Predict the structure.
Amino acid sequence: MPQKYVEVATGLPVDRTFQYAVTGKETYPPTIGKRVLIPFRSMTRIGYIVKIEDEAVCEDPKPLVDVIDQSPVFGEDMINLAEWMKNYYYCSWGEALEAMIPGILKRGKSASVQRVVEPEIKVEPTEPFEPNKEQQEVLNEVNKCIDVSEHKVFLLHGITGSGKTEIYLQAMATALAKGKSGIVLVPEISLTPQTVERFMSRFGDKIAVFHSKMLDSAKFLEWTRIKEGKAKIVVGPRSAIFSPFEDLGLIVVDEEHEPSYKQDDVPRYHAREVAIKRARDKGIPVILGSATPSLESFHRAMKGEYRLVELTQRTEEKELPNVKLVDMRMEFETRTGRDVISRVMAEALKRDIRKKQQALIFLNRRGFSTFTSCPKCGYIMKCKKCDSPLVFHKEKEQLICHYCNFRAEPVEVCPACKGESLKYGGAGTQKVATEIKKILPEARVARMDSDTMTKRASHSKILGEFKNHEIDIIVGTQMIAKGLDFPKVTLVGVIAADANLNLPDFRSGERTFNLITQVGGRAGRGDLGGEVFVQTYTPEHYAIASAVKHNYHKFYDQEIESRRDLEFPPFVNLIKITMRGRKEEKVEKNIQKLYDKLSGRMPETKLLGPAPSPLYKLKGYYRWNIIVKTKDVVETVKNLHAAMNGFRKDGGVFLAVDVDPMSLG
């Protein structure tokens, strides 16, 4: 047999593969997509075969140690997808491949893992609903693409409660009838349990489910079910896009605007963009669904790159909730107290509970008060490791940093001026819940935030109690903004609707509009109708005014002009380069050195900075950013790789590159 060589990608952060010689003594024959053991420096590592070649590209390649797998872990389509991710998201080929498989496989283990019993989700079987005219028109278009295996991106813009999930279900049934499989991405399983239940009620044991709380062994067993063809539909968060289907017929990205589809660490991919790339390669349709589409997706639809389909009516002709804007400036002018709940919302809550109905109160801040300050000198208690105010948690009687979990005891004397009048300012979910209990002592009030949802089943437990009306009012963070459908919820309150507008981020207006629209959409989904109260100090801001009127198009028209003027996405792509270290002067020196090198090598881009990150100190690290604006990401990433190859930074300084970042913090 002629000598063969394999190109192997590793999980190392290096922009290259390594060639090894095939000995013929391996346990299994080497083929593309299999895991191998390779000699690497003084150790043995796991790698992934991405190419097989007849000639050596280097002198005297080392021999493989062994081939781990009898059959490939990756199909060639996934190898190619990982290569695209490498070229777009500034990562190595192996890092992209390792994002696609369960942790057990990354550690070199094989299929012999102990079966783990996950808590069973019990659901009653359901039948498809009769689609209304708008739904049927969308289904006709999607089903046609499934029938002829045509790639098309459908942007399904449907108001809250308009029946987007039923379209996903019926389109997926079409794919199954054609012998195809499907992927349904949801922002986070634990936050969208009702969506999962609806798919399970329709498709039973054909469903595989992934979520972040699953043990590695359980994820591996679900992955194996998919690989063996025992599961035909996957419902899961961003990593589910890598499910090892060979016969994909449809991909759905629900709530496509959600920032949780962006991975925080390497490879920093966006699941929506990976879904579109995978669908394009497979020649199949993809549905991007949202009541509040991302600016990027809607802009592409306006340009004709995506097919825009809209649902303008709620199912069963239910009315959208009546939204009332509460100007908190006027509230405080006419009141002596500084309560968090406005009088009009308090009266509505009393009326709601008297009628045996339910309410959701939304505030995107945990804790009792969001900062502790001295009214005498203005000093604010901050975390010693982070550049952020400490939040007072009354139950724990502690000041806690929400970034690094640093904790301190409350103090009575100002550390700066020694004054004895420290005040707790701002409001968190804990304070709101406490105030509601004062207004309505008889109401059963529960909190849903990351302080109270620490156990694996706590989220489903509290929603089960709410469904059974053992709870009257839930006070929560954005956990309650997504996917909840409870017919007795007739009132939704939004506290501090403008909180995000104060953040130094070009997406702050978009996030504000999305949150108000999404959380407001939880009201009036039954036959009782609903109303939404939005409390704000800036009622005139277009993001708030548009959300109150359920007018996405008006919001988009104003926001897109701002993005155009400032040269922000979708008109350019951003790449955020962050350098961090424990020594401030060392970070500043190294980021300047990198900037000088990049500015001479990337003429096709605009470089902003270097500048301190908006969150300048985090977990003890000082952070500086360079922002790159480009219209050709792949070319810019290629140039970045070239520049970084010769760049030598000081020890103790760390570098991260984030393509298409969700924020500039």
Q: What stands out?
A: The chain has five domains: 5-106, 133-316, 318-366+431-563, 369-426, 573-659. The domain at 318-366+431-563 is CATH 3.40.50.300 (Rossmann fold). The mean pLDDT is 88. The first strand starts at residue 5 and ends at 10.
